Amino acid sequence: MRTLKTKSIRIFLALLGVFVLPGLAAAQQTQQVETHIGKWTGHADTGKQLYFRYCWGCHGFRGDGTGENAPYLNILPRNFVAATFKCRSTPTGTLPIDQDLYNTIERGIVNSAMPSWITLTGQNRADLIAFIKTFSPRWLTEKPGEPLHVPAEPKLTVDSIKRGQALFQKLECWKCHGQEGRGDGPSASTLTDNNDQPIRPFNFAVGSRFKCGTTNEDLYKIFNTGVDGTPMPSFADVVKPDEAWDLVHYLRTLQVTHKSPELTMWESTKEGAALVAAAKPHGTPTGSGVR
Amino acid sequence: MSERAPGIVTKHLSWLLSGLLLSFILFALVLADSRPASALPFPAAQVRPLPAFARKYGMPCSACHLGWPMLSPFGQAFKDNGYQMGNDRDAPIYQDPGYWPVTFRITPIWHRDSTNRVAVDDPANPGGSLEARITTTGFDWTGLDFHAAGTLAKNISFYVLPSSDNTGAFHFESVWGRLDNLFGSSWFNVKMGKFELDNLLSEKRILTLSSVSGTYANYHFQPLVTPGSATNPLIAESYTFGIGDNQVGVEVMGHSKDDRTRYSASLLSSNDGSPGLPTSRAYDGFFTASQAFEIGSLGLQRVGGFAYLGEAPTFYQYSQGGVGVPGTGIGNKSFYRLGLIGQWYLRKVDITTMFFHGWDSAFLGSNTAANQPLPTGAQSPTWNGGLFETHFTPSPQLVLINRYELIRMSRQVFASNPSNFGDMDVLTVGYRYYPFISSRAGFAFHNEFAIQRQRGAAPITGLDLTTSSLLVGFDFDF
């Protein structure tokens, strides 16, 4: 009888080991952080489970960007402990608002290993953000910056594009991005990010998306907020809103492989047509998607 | 190093001991059963986890798989997008030249399979037969799969799967190329070759491996024609079709950016995926559509339906030596399969429900050539089926599996057959434990028990046929 009882206990313990221990191991206490994004309220404890399903391989167990795959990535994963985020609507040096992080998860970051997680539910993304915010004490001591006000976009004109072209020269954007926006300016080879990794300036000549969005408004925000953690500074203090829109219109014309109203208008001018024709890539397709 | 060693040992011991203990329990239960043993076939592995993708993108397998090989919604979107993340770095030109998109998978196993009524020689009556229980048990392994898949260029993807049985005899399980996001739209993708049908409930990503439960009963069910008896053997339908089988053809598929809405339409050769056009020149069609939606914090829910409209030849135009000449099958008769599927997520529990309906022409049902009159009383068999499968995933490392399938005949091939003749029930329980999750390789400690009962399917007595399978395995890929 005692033997049977002992066996029963052993069987129970074995089942306990298989079915319960893994769950307990994953159920460590998580700092109770909530996020509020639209109709979603994110919970860090739920976000933790999602993080350790989807994110830890790159961003690491501690959120410090040292996941097992980080050494193989040419753009290192975000370090959530440092809480320095590239894509924000808030001024440079400040924390992003939750919606900024939500948008980044949804959109991904083009030309990097960060894919779009648009397939996750809104609740999942809100939960993930709540957990990501537990990695850095900055979220306890600082508040996100005030989101940038983006004025209505003025009408697109050739003059606006030309004014933007002049600003591109005046602000010396070409030093990094190159005269044709190919990311091959004279300073390009010297640039490093805050991980001391070499970083190439954005190449406007290929693709249609920017690191932090796809719309003109996104582009407006990028150079007004800067891309923290990279050499791309904020121009909010030196560019007035109208000038910023001029620059947006000109930068769009550098995307010579992506049809846009700006490119069409620019190509309708003699000067623009010549510049665009010279900037368009030629050669045998490599399968990269660049035509 | 000396400070870390105890922690590592303890950590590894916990899962190792847990796994071994449960294995021993299962072994003990099996060894307690002293029924006689013999051999039963065991299917080759039929699943598609691809560490090649994990290595390419540096993601843990848990990102794309709820528990590999079953896809998560993120993994389904990745697949639907032509194995592309969509961050403009999918083309091979961006990969390390040493990257080779190949994965192999095989599963050493111990299994015990038992069938209660199998026709065997009657030693007391030379030339006669009787029924006996056949049980086989022992160590074994599955077939070997070599998955090669990925992108040839941006928006051109491929998949080639040479697959062997456990003797090493290879065949091509999948061979296809796909043009993705045609005209810049995710709504238009074209695939051609041999591929798995766009089943929401993917048989190729099934979580169970045993001879009973390695496939979905509903996907392969075909009505029995007449019960067995002492004077006549059990007769089954002679044409071969399974909606879970990979088929040969062309598929147009589309989805919304977030993969919430999906559709597909396929035109297929009517030969159940066999190479060389061995039967007829007819074509089949397969159509699916589904819509996903969010319910609060529960997760993503999806409902959808599918329809397979097919034909099968009933005789050959030409024969040689009494054997039909391949490709000359004529006298095509139709069949169809319809289904509704729901995938319900309740946080860590996901439930799949399916209603299935099948219909066969009376010619196919009674194995009658179309140029011959139907046997007296022959009619088109119809049946309904259901599936209820639950997974509990307390962590990415553990999936508990439960499945119940049932099939009920609503019209027999012959009205004289018992009304429940051929009805089937299949129950499966099991779990998969993944001791590690990485982007390099996969390993699962797999335990499963499945039992199936089919009414009146015993070959001689016409009694119920019951088959069970118990399996313990190390399922791995690299």
Description:
Chain A is an all-alpha fold and 291 residues long. Chain A folds into 2 domains: 34-141, Cytochrome Bc1 Complex, Chain D, domain 2; 158-279, Cytochrome Bc1 Complex, Chain D, domain 2. Helix content of chain A is 42%, strand content 3%. Chain A contains 13 helices and 2 strands, in the order ααββααααααααααα. In chain A, helix 3 (44-54) packs across helix 6 (122-132), helix 11 (241-253) crosses helix 12 (261-267) and helix 12 crosses helix 13. The longest helix of chain B is centred in the N-terminal third of the chain and has 27 residues, at 5-31. Chain B has one domain (33-477): Beta Barrel (Porin), CATH 2.40.160. The model of chain B is unreliable at 1-49 (pLDDT under 50). The radius of gyration of chain B is 24 Å and the shape is globular. Chain B has helices spanning 5-31, 51-57, 61-64, 73-80, 217-220, 362-365, and strands at 65-67, 70-71, 102-106, 108-121, 129-141, 145-153, 156-164, 170-179, 189-195, 224-226, 235-236, 247-255, 261-269, 283-295, 299-312, 315-316, 319-320, 323-324, 329-330, 333-346, 349-360, 382-395, 398-411, 424-433, 442-454, 465-477. Chain B has 478 residues and is mainly beta. The chains are: A mainly alpha (291), B mainly beta (478).
CATH topology value of the largest domain in chain A: Cytochrome Bc1 Complex, Chain D, domain 2
Overall CATH architecture of the largest domain in chain A: Orthogonal Bundle
Let me know the number of strands of chain B: 26
Unreliable runs of chain A = 18-29
Overall mean pLDDT of chain B stands at 89
Write the CATH homologous superfamily of chain B: Porin
Overall 3D shape of chain B: globular
Structural class of chain A: mainly alpha
What is the CATH top level name of chain B?
A: Mainly Beta
What is the number of domains of chain B?
1
The overall average pLDDT of chain A, rounded, is 89
Secondary-structure-based class of chain B equals: mainly beta
How large is the share of residues in beta strands of chain B?
over 45%
The CATH topology of chain B is Porin
> Measured on Cα atoms, how large is the radius of gyration of chain B?
24 Å
**What's the tally of helices of chain B?**
6
**Number of domain modules of chain A:** 2
Strands in their spatial order, largest beta sheet of chain B:
3-6-7-8-9-12-13-14-15-20-21-22-23-24-25-26
Q: Quaternary state, please?
A: heterodimer
Largest sheet of chain B: 16 strands, antiparallel, barrel
Contiguous helical run count of chain A: 13
